[in-house]
# Entry
Amino acid sequence: MRPSRIPTAQLGRLLTLAFAFLLTLGLFAPQSRAATTAPQERPTPRSFPLPKSPKLPDEHRPVPGEALTGGQDSPRAGTAPAAAPEKQGKAQRSAPNALTAAVCSPADFAKTGAALVQQVRSVDVACVNSLFNLDADGAAKVFREDQMATVADALRTASASYDGTNNAAIGQLVLFLRVGYYVQWRFPDRVGAYGAPLKSATRGALDAFFGAPRSKDVTQANGETLAEAVTLIDSARENARYTGVVKWLLNGFDPTTGGAMWSAVDNTRTVIERGTELPEFIAALQADPSFATAMAGLVTRNAAGLTGSDLATSIGIQLGSLVSFPELRPQARPLVKDLIARYPLVGASGPLTMNLAWYAENKDKGNCALYGICDLPTRLIPLVLTVDHTCSPSLRVRAQDMSAAELADTCTSLANQDAYFHALVKDGGPVAGDQNKRLEVVVFDSYYDYSLYAWSIYDIEVDNGGMYLEGDPSKVDNQARFIAHEATWERPTFQIWNLNHEYTHYLDGRYDMAGDFDAGMSTPTVWWVEGIAEYVSYGYRGVRYDDAIAQAAQGTYKLSTLFDTTYENADSTRIYNWGYLAVRYMLQSHPQDMTALLAKYRAGDWAGARTLLTSTIGTRYDADFAAWLTACGTGRCGSLQQAQAPLCTQADTRQYDKNCRRDGVAATTGNYSYMFVYLPAGVQQLTVTSSGGTGNGDLYYNGSSWATTTSYLAKSTNTGNGETLTVVNPPAGWVFFSLYAQQGFDGVSVTTQY
# Structure
């Protein structure tokens, strides 16, 4: 994802989805807000968006509902039947119905005239449903326009005597037509065009069905066929012609509606949603303001049942889409305004209210006062981000829901990463003029909550996995901010998605890259900016980067090519996986070149850095990089050789001093190796690390008294002996720490730095 100024978001087609898959959802960010009452510390949008988890499909609005793939070019196949209302959702248009397909032969349908009609009527609905899976050859034999028109004519004739049940196999006829529109969309060249003859025949069939008195029976039997017929409206692109049918269903829905009749009303979402893509549908709604009123009425009648995943929420959100059209704004504005004012911004009504606010702000720009949402960000912060925790003078956490233990672990993780980063890049402090002394980490409870609220509170694009807002680092009061969400798919383990990657952007911007983000992008630096963030994220956590190692085995890029990476000329694989590989190789194999390069980055000598990469280094390392990739692709990537601190010299082997280490530290299982160090006044940060050796030692710190497993202020308890503790503003005088032997350890190195 491109870390740049937030681009203008383009809203695509509007997908209504099921609440059970909230993690799959996202939201396109607005352009600049129309409101003038944003939070005082909102930074300028110099931003680093992060990739989503691969567990989150691409979807761009926080509408509740079932996870879908597909977009504007999906076929108009519509909703599949479902077994029960609580399972009902919009099936993706690139897939067959949700029914279990019966065993039947597609060749049996390669007929014409009365023989085809008889075949369709003679099988069950599941058999017809299996035709969604036809390949191009099969579709060409079964769904030519003349065959479709024949079945449509049969549906028209049968509808004249429709008795409200499927005794005449009307459901199979309707579903056959739905399948035909779907496979013709998939294989237009093989099936052939659908033109005026089929359009006329389908209109006649739908007119006859919806005109039949029993098609309005509020029964399970009628609902099953009616639900399919409603979807056929959209499949045939007749959305404008049957707004009266949709309005009737909207007006009739209430909390007692269930079963297949619920499905029939639910399928109106497809007709409305896809209808907004058709000018004739917009014209029909403009001519009949009562349609929008029916949508709003469905919401208010069913408000007691709002859950965020319910039909009323979905229809209400579709009402919001109407303000996108100048012709419909006069009728939609007061209805949307009323719903926004009527229901809370958080809780069960949050998905409805926030989506309506999104439409109001993004599709009716400049009119936030009309909807009463100009101060929305200010109102949302205390409602949504109820946790406010200070880790240190330079680090604050705002969260939707984090326990005391989760907050403490997050603060410790970031403090320890700080030490890891500095040891890696060997900086000499902040770059000249950088005032990013404070970082605020914002943590939403889930990706869904992030997409639902962060766009408004922070004026960002949220179709990503998090966002670092650098602000203007030259301003003394600048507030850098990382906006993130919990990785809910990792529960019960608590994890903030992309936390370590994004924190590296903050550290890198403060200690390695002069000026602001735009300055750093004046020449191609993406290989380093994203590569170091990935390297630290994986290296600090001790996690194997399988995706990057798999890419190494492919040997796709030369090192000299990666130096030219930009957000415009590269995909996410090159930016993240290959950025990591390039940075890892250079840090491990050519640290002297990296020292020279970072010196230029820190001085803002972008032209000099570019010359170093393209001329001084040029293609010189390409062959060695290729050999390294071959080894790395098998898991033999090597390791970074960190410079060791000198040995401590005090006679008491328990005593440490500034920037020194002791080797051969040991203890038997259940016992301690006790240690201490004297700190002068004014030490801002003490870092203690342990590494190497055998066994498993855990590191504990306890300030001015001996550190044990029951008496400590901080701890690091990883598997093995790789432990790090960073203590901010420790007290002056003697402070104590220890290694506790979960398993007897020997040959461990312990280092103190301050």
Remarks:
- Residues 1-48, 57-102 have pLDDT under 50 and may be disordered.
- The first strand starts at residue 47 and ends at 49.
- Residues 404-425 form the longest helix (22 residues).
- Residues 216 and 222 are 8 Å apart (CA to CA).
